Amino acid sequence: MRKIKNIVAIATVAVMAFSMAGCKMIEKTPEAIQKTVLAKVGSDKITMADVNSELQADIDYLIETYGEDYENNIDDTLKAQLKSARQSVLEQLVDNKVLITKGTELGYIPSDEELATEIETERQNFVKAYGGEDELKEALEHYGMSDEKFNSFLENLVKVQKVTEAITKDVTVTDEDIETYYNENIDDYTKKAGANAKHILFKTEEEAKAAKDKINSGEATFDDIYAEYEANATSRTFPLSEDLGYVENEQENFDTDFLAGFKVLKEGEISDPVQSSFGYHIIKVEGVQAEDTVTPLDEVKDTIKSTLESQKKEEVYNSTLEQWKKDLNVKLYEDRL
To answer: What is the CATH number of domain 193-291?
Structure first.
């Protein structure tokens, strides 16, 4: 019995020793971590290095702030943010790889000559957006992007755009589609009865009455008093003035007492003090609309068409992308992030 116990003890120690040695053996170096495969698209692999490269400016900041071992030095909040950023980048890299791979296979990618022209056009768009060549160069340096990397980015951008255009080129929107959408969303094209409203809010009824007396006597105009207290709106100190924009007579989430005093006003009229749960208001209305009005279909037809085209293109894009991912046997290893 004693002999068996010794054998068990020796075996246990051996297993523990092997486990401890094994942990040290499989502990990954920074270089190995960079080579970690996070996704496969067909025969192509996307690694941690590919993902980190897209986040170079952020990685540089973390290294500068927390050292080379930033992965272990940052707190849980930053770890979660970094993982989320990496996940977003990984998903985008996978989508781009799928689109370019299948797009090339199906002949959706333009010739080298046309591609070069399109890339230069996109580059000039960036130059214009950043305000010049020097400004763009400064921005690229800030994001840790070399000229070579930027050119690669532009090439992929153009290719993805061309493939997306090819995928969605047959999307059409009929007049029937437009009319159906209009009828189903008629509230979006209906302007409810109401008016543009400005108000001056006082803490006490006495203050509100004194201000209204000044307006009635001609000593001051509503606009004079409004301007006097306009700056107080930010700090929410009394009295304060606010432009409420267009307020519906039955506006949701508005004080009902305020609305009761507001909706009876005529064009350009200034109210007597109106008590609400916030205090005492003097209200001025302009652009009064007595009834609900519906914008005619013809006036919004083009806008609806554009909206429906975008929706349908997005649906076709997403369904095609998902099918292509199946075709290419895409694998994501997000647990390795």
So the answer is: 3.10.50.40
